[in-house]
Design a protein that fits this description.
- The strands form two sheets. The chain has a four-stranded antiparallel β-sheet.
- The model has no long low-confidence stretch (mean pLDDT 78).
- The longest helix has 41 residues.
- The chain has 230 residues and is α+β, with helices and mostly antiparallel strands.
Length: 230
């Protein structure tokens, strides 16, 4: 049995996640209108305009979530995005990887692991829904890689410039993740320190340092990493 016999493969949003997303958008966004709708000084046309825009945005979210998808067939991988569709042939792919999602801690319910296909120029295309919220991402990436290795052609060779570009991006993102990790840890440390000093009556730092300190730590770690990578 060959890897290509497992094709085609299609990845889309799960029905349960679609319902949850629509429920959150359908409830959360209209609730955000309450302050405007109850504002007596706001003109009526402004209230109607903003309401229509919010409803249109909810509809757009629903349409976009259904439209987004990733599929793989004997010719390559196709990704349907918000604005345009992109197709990359197997022979043009330089790598397929699952990577940590840098936005995982910033949005509730965001996947922890996402995946990309990398092209000849080192650029990458996110494989929508090939993530740990929708599939066993390691298994699916392994299946896509197996199909790629079979179908890319016997004369396929790695593009050195693409590999260099991918390596540079990985280094930048690794530095960014380290800086975010140190900054997050510093928030906890400074919060504990501020509470201890407050309770002991030895307040040497104002509460603003709980925000300023992590920002300085982030910049120091990030800039230090960029300097060492040169």
């Amino acid at each position: 049995m060959t890897a290509s016999s497992a094709l085609p493969r299609t990845y889309g949003i799960k029905p349960g996640r679609m319902k949850a997303m629509l429920a959150a958008a359908g409830v959360g966004l209209p609730l955000s209108l309450v302050p405007l709708l109850t504002e007596e000084d706001a003109p009526g046309w402004v209230k109607w305009l903003v309401t229509l825009l919010v409803l249109a945005f909810v509809g757009w979210i629903a349409r976009a979530a259904r439209k987004l998808s990733t599929s793989a067939d004997l010719k390559g991988i196709r990704v349907r995005g918000f604005v345009r569709d992109r197709r990359i042939a197997w022979e043009d792919i330089q790598d397929i990887r699952a990577v940590p999602n840098p936005a995982a801690g910033m949005a509730q319910g965001a996947p922890g692991v996402i995946s990309y296909a990398y092209g000849r120029d080192g650029g990458r295309i996110q494989l929508f829904y090939v993530d740990d919220n929708h599939v066993r991402v390691e298994r699916e990436v392994a299946a896509l890689r197996a199909a790629w290795e079979e179908l890319r052609g016997a004369d396929w060779t790695e593009d050195a410039r693409a590999a260099e570009a991918i390596g540079r991006r990985d280094a930048r993102e690794g530095g960014l993740m380290r800086a975010l990790g140190w900054a997050t840890a510093s928030v906890l440390v400074l919060t504990v320190l501020f509470v201890v000093l407050l309770l002991t009556g030895n307040v040497l730092l104002g509460p603003e340092w709980i925000l300023i300190g992590p920002a300085l730590v982030f910049l120091a770690v990030w800039l230090g990493g960029r300097y060492r990578s040169r």
